[in-house]
Specification:
Largest sheet: 7 strands, mixed
Structural class: alpha+beta
Radius of gyration: 29 Å
Number of strands: 13
Number of helices: 21
Low-confidence stretches: none
Shape: globular
Length: about 450
């Protein structure tokens, strides 16, 4: 394991001043996995005041100093250095009521959440691993440090962090750790909504998301109670092989690991349980479920503090996931006119995931690839589907004598005519059509 020079230099500097220092946490875990860490964190026996003295000539940030963290700004990137510490009670179920600085690295590692993150590394002394994190890392096991219930009572967000690790790394959660997660899941009520959103987004974008959503559906729906009715909701429909939850899980794994697409896929059928009816033949129907899913999403997304832009995008995908995009160039142009290329491609991804997640027929997936081919042809030929592409503009229509609202109305009428193939997108042709329509309106 090789430390980057800026981290190694900081360790040497602290130790020349008489203190102990180690690389710690996620950077050690990732390095042992053969993955380049995003950043490097150090811990040290030096007190906050002593750290400030050691780095008195460096550029530093002191915003975390009350909890023992000094950020040193180096050419290799910011470096967080934290004094060894233990933590007091967690009366809010998230943050320690206080910290106590200590001088033993093992005491510091004992406060951490999972064994794979409770390891430290020194360029000369090697690995410090008092809780068997290296073995768990090799075996792909996620295990709480010490008493699992205590770890999750201290900070319930660790429950979702564990699920995120499982989804990202493919690790199995050790049975007693998983049992403690379930015993303490009620503590998530104390966690800020945006922190829950961040962890769930990381989970949804993980490589092993399907496995995690299936194995820990009860924990996921404890954080997102609106989705609980999806569990075990049988579809009883020849077009669907799985219940609503498993269909959704399989669909989530089929779309690109981009947060908005994964969230839209998670929510696209969330309204199905409330819409379910069964006919005399025993076939299940879910009429109106896009509207029901949209209504549910409109409640859930603001609660989790999604941005306005992400909310708008997710809601559009949920609302339109069952709406055809078009099986002809004319209909594709019409869809492009309504939602634009970016959302069209988003919907294609959603529809493909939805179709694969049904587990019954490949025909619909094939149709979607045909729609994608139509889209690419329309774009490659620069066919007109927006006012920006129209060969005339508002000034041209004003020159014909139109003023105010009729200018916009005529532009849209001309665009509709082009999209529907009634006329070519040529300036002279469009102006002639505009004059004709003005004359007809004048006669009326």
């Amino acid at each position: 394991m090789q430390l980057p020079e800026h981290a190694a230099h900081a360790i040497r500097r602290l130790e020349r001043a008489g203190f102990e220092a180690w690389a710690v946490g996620g950077c050690v875990r990732d390095s042992l996995r053969g993955v380049e860490p995003h950043d490097w964190d150090l811990c040290t026996s030096a007190s906050p005041a002593q750290m400030q003295a050691v780095f008195a000539d460096a550029r530093v940030l002191t915003t975390g100093l009350r909890h023992g963290t000094l950020t040193v700004l180096t050419d290799g990137g910011p470096l967080e250095i934290t004094t060894y510490r233990t933590e007091g009670g967690y009366s809010d179920g998230r943050h320690p009521d206080g910290v106590r600085f200590v001088t033993d690295i093992r005491e510091d590692l004992a406060r951490r959440d999972f064994t794979v993150g409770a390891m430290a590394w020194h360029p000369e002394r090697g690995l410090c691993d008092p809780f068997g994190g290296q073995t768990d890392l090799k075996n792909g096991v996620l295990r709480a440090v010490g008493d699992a219930d205590t770890r999750f009572q201290e900070d319930a967000l660790r429950i979702l962090r564990g699920l995120r690790f499982a989804s990202k790394l493919g690790f199995a959660i050790e049975p007693e750790t998983a049992a403690a997660m379930r015993r303490q899941v009620h503590c998530l009520d104390c966690i800020a909504a945006e922190r829950i959103r961040e962890e769930l987004t990381g989970l949804l974008c993980g490589r092993y998301v399907q496995r995690t959503l299936m194995a820990y559906a009860d924990l996921i729906t404890s954080a997102l109670p609106e989705l609980a009715p999806m569990l075990g909701c049988q579809q009883q429909n020849p077009h669907h092989l799985y219940d609503v939850w498993e269909h959704t899980v399989r669909a989530v794994g089929q779309v690109p690991a981009e947060p908005v697409l994964r969230w839209a896929m998670l929510l696209h059928d969330s309204g199905k349980p409330a819409c379910k009816t069964v006919d005399e033949q025993g076939i299940g129907h879910f009429r109106g479920h896009p509207r029901a899913s949209l209504a549910l999403s409109r409640e859930l997304l603001p609660r989790l503090r999604f941005s306005s832009a992400d909310t708008e995008r997710i809601l559009l995908l949920v609302e339109r996931h069952d709406t055809p995009l078009g099986d002809s160039e004319k209909l594709v142009r019409r869809s492009l006119s309504r939602i634009g290329e970016a959302r069209f491609r988003d919907l294609l991804a959603i529809k493909k995931g939805d179709a694969v997640g049904q587990g019954t027929s490949r025909d619909y997936v094939a149709q979607l690839f045909e729609t994608e081919a139509l889209l690419n042809r329309v774009l490659a030929q620069e066919q007109c589907f927006s006012l920006r592409q129209l060969a005339v503009n508002g000034a041209d229509l004003q020159a014909l004598g139109l003023r105010g609202r009729p200018v916009g109305e005529m532009l849209h009428a001309l665009l509709d005519a082009v999209i529907d193939g009634q006329t070519d997108n040529r300036r002279d042709t469009l102006l002639r059509l505009a004059r004709t329509r003005m004359e007809e309106q004048h006669v009326k």
